[in-house]
Amino acid sequence: MSPPIFTPNGDGINDAARIEFSVFRLDGAARFSVRIHDLAGRVVRDLSFDRMNASGDHALEWDGRDLSGKLVAPGAYVLRVEFSADVDGELGFLAPVRVAY
Fold first, then answer.
1. CA pair distance 101, 92, nearest whole angstrom
2. What is the pLDDT of residue 9?
3. Distance between CA 7 and CA 82 in Å, rounded?
4. Preceding amide of 96 cis, omega within 30
5. What is the mean pLDDT of residues 43-60?
6. Which terminus has fewer CB within 10 Å in the chain: N or C?
7. SS3 assignment for 19-80
8. What is the pTM of this model?
């Protein structure tokens, strides 16, 4: 996640958070569940996607907007990425996201 604190205020500087991760040894297609949660656990934004060749590098951006397209309030959020693995079942990770204005 970069930058660790982003400011989606439209000034052209750190207006989006870039989410990057790599997956190895995953054959075929996969669904990547990528969600931003508030600290109460509610889904604020869903950035999930499907990939035909799931192994490799993945990158996407969050513009600081919620499910309805409005800018979220400043504060701390949690990024949760999950996907199914061929052998181990569900895998994933959590990462902090901070929004400031």
1. 29
2. 93
3. 26
4. no
5. 94
6. C
7. EEEEECCCCCCEEEEEEEECCCCCEEEECCEEECCCCEEEEEEECCECCCCCECCCEEEEEE
8. 0.88
| Residues 6+ positions from 2 with CB-CB distance below 8 Å | 17, 18, 20
What whole-number distance in Å separates Cα of residue 89 and Cα of residue 68? 32
Mean of pLDDT over the chain: 92
| Statement: residue 69 has pLDDT above 90 | yes
What letter represents residue 88's amino acid? D
| φ, ψ (nearest 5 deg) of residue 64 | 80, 15
Tens-digit pLDDT profile for residues 5-47: 999 999 999 999 999 999 888 888 889 999 999 999 999 999 9
